[in-house]
Amino acid sequence: MRNSLKKAINYYDIFAQVYDLFSPKWYYHEARDYSIKQLQLKEGDTILNLPCGTGQNFEYIQEYINNTGLIIGIDLSDGMLRKAKRKVNQNDWKNIHIIQEDATKVNTTWLATQYDNTLRADVILCDLGLSGFPAWEKVIDNLYELLAPQGRLVIMDWYLPKPTLRGELIKWIGKGEVDRPIYQYLQSKTNDFSVNTSFNRGGVFVATGIKS
Ligand SMILES: C[S@@+](CC[C@H](N)C(=O)[O-])C[C@H]1O[C@@H](n2cnc3c(N)ncnc32)[C@H](O)[C@@H]1O
């Protein structure tokens, strides 16, 4: 593992203890709620959530799929995944697989080794991850490839292109960048694209790309 990635994951292993306190439900609620609506979930869907962190999305997703289908939650931090697993056990959710993996390795070959060659995701939610991942464009390419035809890739993340104090604070807390042209890259991949940049006082966007 590269040194900078190792440092970030070590940080999240510790931050996991207080993540749900420091990143409480209300802070991203509007953006999360909108992101999940954009997925247009149906019972029985296969959903990939990368990075799943402490599993804050799971309760939102279950409201739509009611413990049916399959949620694959992927993250690299053991500490964050332990919190996610605790939520799964406490709620007795049977449709969630938690897998520890580096986002840059999640591609069609990887999915085939975990499941089988034919599995594709009906929807993918990538929230607050691409601002921190190395090779983030490649991660978007891979996720797009993992989608079933007409599948939806929803990305929620920060975009503050001009340097500000708030941007510096978000970078420090999240150990990522805030000026990557993430939604613009997704837009370049699909004709069926929309973006809403109104969340968290204009700092957070939710972008949706549909696979043609
Ligand atoms: C800001 S948290 C977001 C977690 C979750 N999506 C949420 O919204 O609460 C960033 C997450 O990315 C994970 N992460 C960072 N680099 C990663 C990588 N290369 N592969 C997989 N997960 C990674 C961290 O462990 C952390 O859980």
* Strand arrangement, major sheet: 3-2-1-4-5-7-6
- According to DSSP, the number of beta strands is 7
Task: Tell me the radius of gyration.
Answer: 16 Å
Helix content class: 40-55%
Bound molecules: S-adenosylmethionine
Shape: globular
Beta-strand residue percentage: 15-25%
Q: What is the distance, rounded to the nearest whole angstrom, between the alpha carbons of the first and last residues?
A: 34 Å
Specify the structural class. alpha/beta
Q: Largest beta sheet, briefly? A: 7 strands, mixed
User: According to CATH, what is the class?
Assistant: Alpha Beta
CATH architecture: 3-Layer(aba) Sandwich
CATH homologous superfamily caption: Vaccinia Virus protein VP39
Give the helix/strand layout:
Layout: H1 3-15, H2 19-22, H3 25-39, E1 46-49, H4 58-65, E2 70-75, H5 78-91, E3 96-100, H6 108-114, E4 121-127, H7 136-146, E5 147-158, H8 165-174, H9 182-189, E6 192-199, E7 204-210
Parallel strand pairs: 1-2, 1-4, 2-3, 4-5
Antiparallel strand pairs: 5-7, 6-7
Helix pairs in contact: 7-9
Bound molecules: S-adenosylmethionine.
Residues 5, 8-9, 12, 51, 53, 56, 75-77, 80, 102-104, 127-129, 132-133, 174 line the site of S-adenosylmethionine.
